[in-house]
Write a structure and sequence with these properties.
The protein is an alpha+beta fold and about 325 residues long. The protein contains 12 helices and 12 strands. A 4-stranded antiparallel sheet has the order 3-2-10-6, with helices on one face. It is globular and about 75 Å long. About 35% of the residues are buried.
């Protein structure tokens, strides 16, 4: 599998791919179209963060000015036109379609009003949000490297049988000649497969969907760099997915309509408080709101109970190391 995905490359030092001004520089893991739902009349959102570890700081920023990393989805040691494949040809089109789906979702459509394309775009976006944060990308690259290393022994016999005259003597020697960007390329290929997984996407498509409204008399919903909360699996009793899609709108999906009905019956005040607590506790670096009225709440709960992401849980199952601070991650 690994050998089949390795392509010959020109060797030599290349500039970081995001330094080419014709290529996208800032790769947003919380897309601007989503975060802009929390923008005020000044066009800015209130970002809560802890740049000094302890004190939570509230700062107003345009949605484009936060939740990004330069070159997050760039493959190192690749020409710019190849290094940006993940961002330009996968993430950007996916987000564009998801933006259309969110516009439609806000119009409170009935389930029969959805087209298969729009519904799949929203399912794909939610799945992507579980896999695209910087911690997820770092975990995926680490796991790919670990799998690569563990596969070398098994590949030796195959390599020896197919080795041509002039080729390196061993798989280890062959791999040592490859560009470091090969790990990135393979990692992003795996990421695209996971983010656009037909079976998982169809499972979400088949769920019941609803948008719950929050009145202006209640505190607004918050969001974060981990905006989605879901049960451990999609198949357990009362399984569901929740995601704030604005300060006054909460998206819910569940296999059983009775699960949504039970959630819908809760008082909006209790529901908003519960959702905000989960979103803030589950955050890593950033929490977002329409203003700073939740500063004390965020200070108390920010990043206090971050549950393992899908990729971190998968890494544990496969015996891989967790790259995040394990003491701050709840596995299970």
């Amino acid at each position: 599998f690994f050998m089949a995905n390795m392509l010959p490359e020109e060797h030599g030092k290349l500039e970081p791919p995001w330094q080419n001004m014709n290529e996208p520089i800032d790769h947003h893991y919380i897309p601007v179209f989503y975060l802009s739902r929390w923008a005020g009349t000044d066009g800015r959102v209130c970002r809560f963060s802890r740049p000094y570890q302890q004190e939570t700081i509230a700062k107003r920023l345009v949605p484009k000015g936060t939740a990004f990393e330069p070159g997050l989805y760039s493959a190192q040691d690749q020409p710019p036109q190849l290094a940006q494949t993940m961002e330009k040809h996968f993430m950007a089109p996916l987000d564009m379609q998801a933006a259309k789906a969110l516009d439609f979702l806000e119009s409170a459509p009935s389930e029969k009003d959805w087209t298969s394309g729009l519904r799949s775009s929203w399912s794909r976006f939610m799945l992507t949000q579980m896999l695209r944060a910087p911690e997820d990308i770092a975990q995926l690259k680490s796991a790919t490297t670990q799998d690569w290393s563990s596969a070398i022994h098994e590949l030796e016999a195959i390599y020896a049988a197919q080795r041509l005259e002039g080729d390196p003597e061993t798989v280890q020697e062959y791999l040592s000649l490859q560009s470091p960007g090969e790990i990135d390329k393979l990692s992003f290929k795996i990421a695209r497969t996971l983010m656009d997984h037909p079976a998982v996407g169809q499972t979400i498509n088949n769920m019941h969907w609803i948008v719950l409204n929050v009145s202006k008399d209640e505190l607004p919903l918050l969001t974060s760099d981990r905006p989605i909360w879901m049960t451990t699996t999609f198949f357990e009793e009362d399984a569901f997915i929740s995601m704030p899609i604005g300060p006054r709108k909460l998206f819910l999906a569940a296999p059983q309509i009775s699960t949504i009905q039970r959630i819908e019956m809760r008082s909006r005040r209790q529901l908003v408080k519960a959702v905000n607590k989960i979103v803030v506790q589950h955050s890593v670096k950033f929490v977002y709101g329409i203003d700073n009225r939740s500063l004390k709440f965020v200070q108390k709960h920010m990043a206090t109970r971050r549950h393992a992401s899908l990729l971190e849980r998968l890494a544990v199952r496969r015996g891989h190391e967790i790259v995040a601070d394990i003491d701050r991650v709840i596995i299970g």
